Amino acid sequence: MIELASTGLPAFARWFPGGAPGVAALPEHVIATGGGRWWADRAVDPKAVAVSSGGHVLLRGDPAALAPGALAGFADSYIEAPARFLPVLGGAFQRVDPWERMVYVHSAPAIAARPAHGITVRRLTAEDAPAVAALGLGAAWIHRTWGGPEQLASSGHCWGAFHRGRALSLACTYFLGSRYEDIAALADPGHRRQHLALACVTALCQDIAARGRTPSWTCSRDNRPSRLLAWSAGFRLAREYVHYATGPARSPEFRRAAAA
């Protein structure tokens, strides 16, 4: 697939209806923030279109328009696509693993979170970028949809729990949609089970509601801690879906042999 120039995005956005919770808000996020990329099988009258951000990909259209090699750029990603794309995904990657996902919508009061004395929960500012970066590579996923620590910290869409200038937990809008903001949260491994993530999520949800939108939450069915945090913060299950974790791209030699 070829990457599309930003000037043509309004025409391609119609492939992804807006106003839905979860990863469905990804296209709106890319349009609003620039934190992602758009792709198509061709620039004019495409038959297949994709949008990617933070390692997540939404793929729509006619799979017959795509040779397996066209998807090589989506190796080691999470692809949400209709089941009709499975044959071309299987031909493109060495591994295609289905993951059951759950989408929650905020609709109930949160359990009260009371951080310990000396911990401050507040909105991040641009000056907090070093504190976000200091969380390390294991936490880098949380700012990938924004383009990095600086962009997340200055976005106005992230709350954190701080102690003496150190970020112990973060909650942020991961995908910024027109009706829903799908959120993500993390806590420093040494400060879990202290309700810090819950406090950050609760503050962020109040912020999102003040903007006139509804918070949503997406996680794997097998991620019990994430599901428990979502429930504690007032999220309730709205729908389930499957996305596909891809492995490395298959070699051109393999694809030629398979086609022979």
Folded structure, characterized:
- There is one protein chain.
- With 260 residues, the chain is α+β, with helices and mostly antiparallel strands.
- It contains 8 helices and 12 strands.
- Strands 1-2-3-4-5-12-6-11-10-9-8-7 form a 12-stranded mixed sheet, sandwiched between helices.
- A hairpin with a 7-residue loop joins strand 2 and strand 3.
- The chain is elongated, with a radius of gyration of 19 Å.
Q: Which key terms come to mind for this protein?
A:
twelve-stranded mixed beta sheet; elongated; 260 residues; 8 helices; alpha+beta
Produce the secondary structure layout.
Layout: E1 2-3, H1 9-13, H2 26-33, E2 37-40, E3 48-53, E4 56-61, E5 78-80, H3 86-92, E6 96-106, E7 120-123, H4 129-133, H5 149-153, E8 158-163, E9 166-176, E10 180-187, H6 196-210, E11 214-220, H7 224-232, E12 235-246, H8 252-259
Parallel strand pairs: 4-5, 10-11
Antiparallel strand pairs: 1-2, 2-3, 3-4, 5-12, 6-11, 6-12, 7-8, 8-9, 9-10
Short description:
This protein is of the alpha+beta class and about 260 residues long.
